[in-house]
Every structure is written in structure tokens, then in C-alpha cells.
Amino acid sequence: MTKQIDVTEIFGSNVFNDRVMKERLPKDTYRALKKTIQEGLPLSLEVANVVASAMKDWAIEKGATHYTHWFQPLTGRTAEKHDSFISPTEDGGVIMEFSGKQLTQGEPDASSFPSGGLRSTFEARGYTAWDCTSPAFLKTDAPGNVTLCIPTAFCSYTSEALDKKTPLLRSMEAVSKQAVRVLKALGNKTVTRVTSTVGPEQEYFLIDKKYYDQRLDLIVSGRTLFGASGPKGQELEDQYFGAIKDRVAAFMRDLDVELWKMGISSKTKHNEVAPAQYEMAPIFSTTNIAADHNQLVMETMQKVALRHDLVCLLHEKPFAGVNGSGKHNNWSLATSEGVNLLEPGRTPAENGQFLIFVSALIMAVDRHADKLRASCGNPGNDLRLGANEAPPAIISIFMGEELTEILEGIAKGKKVANRSQSVLHVGVDSLPQLPKDNTDRNRTSPFAFTGNKFEFRMVGSSASISGPSIVINTIVSEALDEIATRLEKAGKHHIYKESEAIVRDAMKKHGRIIFNGNNYSEIWVAEAKKRGLPNIKTGVEALRYMATPEAVKLFEKYKVLSRMELHSRYEIYLEHYIKHVNIEAQAAVQMVKKQYLPAVIKFTQQLAKTIGQLKVAAGPAKVQKELLGKVSGLLESAAAKLEVLEAAIKKAHAIQDVEKRAEAFRDKVVVAASDLRADIDALETITPLELWPVPSYADMLFKL
Ligand code: ADP
Ligand code: MG
């Protein structure tokens, strides 16, 4: 029997959250810290000392012996170096110590993190600085091994961001500032801050560990590089929302408990479309907390899976022929008063404000579709985007018919019927009461309005949500900046007319980005081309758009990323792509040489032997001969393709220029590896099961 748990009791029990702070900090310290958190003011060392001491006591009571500055380098993962609290005493013992300085600042030797030329190795120092807007928490890595984790930003000696958190925090500042300006111009006198909120839905696969352990491709690259499709895939649509198997349910329960302890509000869990595919979604939160939490979600999924002899695959496309995994970034803006700015609302005045914010999104996404696409450009996503289950590589917005009609009506300057003189007419009097739950969902859109938020579905399942969130926040900042300037110029008396004009202009200039139809259809590809929308098919191509002069201007204007930071990131991501594809290619070569070819050769020996025996005994051994011919043909072909692949890897490595090298890996190495796969997969379908050296798709996807 599993123990009964009290969720309200365990939720956040490993978090140094507001409740704990209130309980354990002196009143004035608590107030000073809250002010820092809410208003972004600097924290005095005095306050930090008191907080550190309370945090340490709390952590030790809960079993912690170590602390770590937990940060998010450009690897896309998290980093931690554990320091114990011990400090020697004169009598040969130790006391447990943790100072304000240790809490607020760290200096990890950072020479081995990617920096893209921002920090040469001899100046290896990187600095971590406490992000007190994301609460400290405890992580348990093995029973009894508890570590106090302090979320931190990671910068170079010269203050350049070396991580994903720093620009995310900067982009949140930017969007807050511009959104507040817009609200003030619209007459809101009380709002002080606007935060971007995110709820990331996380898709993943689970397979039995015993199969995983037999596949080098899964172990080193996270996806299957070979594997013939089994007789069954996802065509029966019997997995999506299907009943959850006991073994998976046990995993999910454990996962929930672990996440809840860390204050992560795991809310929804279900079977996804592909066999062995699942999803979890938390309740949305402030973007930087959501980003921290999503990292913990991925890490915890992988850890908890192992406890159940399962392996969690977070790769975007672990199996060919069935759906890949993504991350749906649900995004919105919330005011300091708790109002969701993308909530259509019930009264016309609110609708007017809503339409202004929706217009900002239309402007932003149309102008900067290339950067949004770039933010999703990782090697795994190349295999997913554009495949028939995934959003295509073309960015468009789904608005739903009703909202599109309203926006188009305003664009055409349709005279708005005034319901009452006192009611504002920002072109909003014409608004029907929008249904609160916009059920008119379009599952094929990469950027969909879903009732009171936008859902960005292009993000890869293994990626940090910081990148896409940074881009959305920044491009929306620019649009809101422009809108605020127009509203401020128009002045109070012309605010409604100007608002209407803003919506109209947004639709006229950028309405082409709205598409409510089927994004998977060929017709859309042609239509998008006609509309002039970019169709950026690969990550390598997309990444370039992060560092164009136009991108530099935008990100510098809103102080999110500097030219140097953008260029170094571009370089790091290209290098990452190259390394990733190289690992895959090397694994493919090894598997073919050491596993597949020997197995097939053995099969040909068996066949040859049988044929020889049969000849002596009786008949002509027709079937065996035919099979031997077929197997030998494929074997020869595979051996030749293996040579092509090895040569392609060698040639690509020799290219000096990093962009050209990345292109060579994409155009030559990836292609050669997939050609080779075709032969191996064909061989799999005719080789006896007992000779095949690795588990099949059917094993991995259905034996759970
Ligand atoms: P779906 O039908 O797409 O699964 P849900 O209503 O379950 O939609 O929501 C998906 C995610 O969107 C959840 O993580 C939820 O918390 C998040 N979400 C809801 N409202 C907002 C918001 N205002 N801002 C950001 N995310 C939100
Ligand atoms: Mg969703």
C-alpha cells in the first residue's frame, strides 16, 4: 500500500517561500526583502546576512548539508556546484555557516561553460548573483542528500550574460515598462508592474530501461537513429487521453509528489498522441519562475523515471514515424493588480484594452516571426517542425473566427453602433460578448490565441523556455512602446479614436500573420509564401536571425541582449548543433560497424550454410537464395553508405567557418546518416528477431 499523502502539507515544503520567510525572518528584514523582490531594489549586505542565516537554519533542519548557486548556462541545462556549510573552529571541530555574501554572490570557475568568445579561458571567472524573485529550494538527489539551491543569474566579469536567466529577467523588465506605459495612457492610474506569465506544457516519452540500455543511440543522443516502424504506430488514436497504465501512473504520482515538494504546481497529466508519449502541465506562473520550474520538471522526470526502471526521453523526435514532443509555451501578461491583459473581459472598456494588447501581439509576431522561429531552432526540432504532426516552420497566429471578424471589422472602419452615450467606443461597442472559453481550438497553429493567452507551440520539448520567452517579451515590448507613444501623443481626449486607429493599423499592416486554417496543409505553404511570411525550415538557418543588425538593434534598444551577447549566443548554438549532429553520426557509425553489420553477416552465413546443406540434400533452395541475394544487396549498399557518412563527417569537420561547418553537418552528415538508416531499417524487417542486436520500435513503444 502506498502512503496516503496530504498534498496541502507537502506542497512547497522544500521551498523557502513567502510563508517560511514570514515565519522565520524578523519583520523589518522580511519587509526589506519583499521590497527587493517586488520592486527590484538592491539588497543590503545586512539584510542578506539575516536572510542567509535563517535560510541555512531552515535548510539544515530539513537535512541539508550543502548549498549551491543553481544557474542556467547556455548548455540549456542547469549547473550546480555544491559547497558544504562547514567552517572549521579552533578546537578542531566545525560549525555550520552561511553568510549574506555567500547567499548573494558566487564565483564558480566557469571556464568550461560555453561563452562564445565572451570570456577567454584565462579570465575564467564567472559570477553568479542571487535572483531573489525565484525562491530558494531544497533538492534531494539521493535519500539523505539534501542541497539548498539558490537560483542565480550567471554573468562574466564584465557583466555580460553567460546564461539564460539574465536576459529573461531583462526582457521581463522591458515588457513591464512598456505595458505600464500603455495602461497609464489608457487611464489606469494604479498599475505599477506588469509581469509576463508562462505555463509550459511538457511532453515526454517513457520507455523501459532494459531496452534503453541496449541502444547506444538513445544513450548518447536521446533518440533512435535506426529502427523500422512496427506494425502499429499511433494510427488507432487510442493513446491520446487513454487510460493511464499502472506503471506509468505510479511514475506520475511520484513525479507529482517530488514537484509539489519543490513548489511546482503540477496540475495536469495525460497520455499524449504517440504510443509511450505523455504530458504534464503546471499552473502558470511568472516567467522566470516558470523557466526555473520547467528545468526542474525535466530533471525530476528523468530522475523519477529511473526509480521505476523507466527512462524519460525529452528529445523532440525520439522515434521516426510517430509524433515528436514539444513544449507549449502559454504566454500572457498580468498586471500588479492581478488582471490578465489578454482576458477579453465582459465590458467594452476592458475589451478596448484587450484589443490594444492583441494588436501588439499581431504587430510583434508579424515583424519578428524570424526571431521567434530562431528561438526554437535546436537540432531535435529540425526533425519535428514541418513533419506532419508538428506545427510547420511557418509562423502564423490563430485568432479564432470571432475575434478575427472583430479585428477585421475595425480594420475596415465599420461604423460602430453605440449602445449608450457613456460607453466608450474604441471600436469595441461592436464586440459581442466573447465566449470566455474559446473552444474553437486550432491544434495545428504554431501561435494560437486560446481564450485568454497565446500558446506558442513550436518550442522543442528539451529546450529551455527562456529563449522563446525572451523573444516574445522583447518583440511585444517594441510594439507596446510604439503604441504607448501614439496614445501619449494623442492625449486623453483623443484616446479612443487613437486606440481604434492603432487596432486598424495593426490589422492593415500585419493582419497577414493571422491564419485560422489548417497549418499542416500544402495550400497554407503556398498561401504563406504569397503573403510574404518567412518559411525557415532548419534551425541552422533560423539561428542566423538572432544576430542580424536588425535583431541587434531591437535587443539592444530594450537592453535585453547586446550585440556581443547575441553574436556569442549565435556561435554557441551553431557549435551546439554541430556537436550534437556529430555525436549522432558517430553513434550511427559505431552501431552499424559493431552491431548491425556483424548481425547481418551472421544471417548471410546462416543462409549460405542452409543453401549448401539443401543443395546436397535435395532441392534448389529458391527462397533461401532469394533472401540471401536481398540481404547481401542491402549489406553492400549499407557498407557503401557507411563510407559516405564517415567521409562526410571528416569533410565537415575540416571546414573552418562555423556557419559553413554547421551547414555541412546539416546538408551532408544528416543526409548521409539518414540514407544509411534506410538500408539498416530495411534489413531489420527481413532479419530474424533473435539475430537483431537491438530492441525494436514495437519493444520500446508498446512493452511498458
Ligand atoms: P490546454 O487545453 O491547451 O491544455 P489549459 O487550460 O490546460 O490548456 O492550459 C494550458 C497551460 O496554460 C497551463 O499551464 C495553464 O496554467 C496555462 N495558462 C492558463 N492561463 C494562463 C495565463 N494567463 N498565462 C500563462 N499561462 C496560462
Ligand atoms: Mg495546450
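^ adenosine-5'-diphosphate complex. The chain has three domains: 7-162, 171-417+436-561, 577-702. The mean pLDDT is 90.
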